[in-house]
Predict the 3D structure of the following.
Amino acid sequence: MTWQVNIKIGIKLNLWVKDKSSLSKKIINTMPFKIKNLKVRHIKVFNDEKVFFKKENTRDFFIREVLIFADKLPVIYARTVIPKKYLRGFWGRVKRLKNSPLSGIVFNKKCILRSDFVFKKLSDNDELRKRLNACKIYESGAITARKSAFNHKGEKVLLTEVFLSSIEGIKILE
């Protein structure tokens, strides 16, 4: 399945998947929050990521993969892809985030613009789902993902978020 501008999902998941605000902040305001960096030696750049940046060489990218936990349950896999040349400027902060959320960078500056989302339900053969399995994140059934870009003065980074089934158990404080 390809990325789409609309997706049909359940009401509980919809509250997360279509929210343009900081999901990390939403979780932090509700329950204990933790980010775990996924350290893997060889991280493949996906074809759609290369197309987005109009680059072919996979060595041109820095990739940060994290697993976001809410009350000790993994709820979101997040993947940030940045052209390495942008790391010398503003986006270099991403390398120093460690176990802090990307939201600490992107939602604190009004000059950073977020694109609209595109969505996808991951099939068993999807390269993103295979990546989850390689990180020992196993989900049965349908998995929903979204993708958006953050733009700071013409320098874009790509964020892909995969919503794990446990996220539907989080009660959101309004």
Observations:
- Strands lie at 33-37, 61-70, 73-83, 113-114, 118-122, 143-152, 155-163.
- The mean pLDDT is 90.
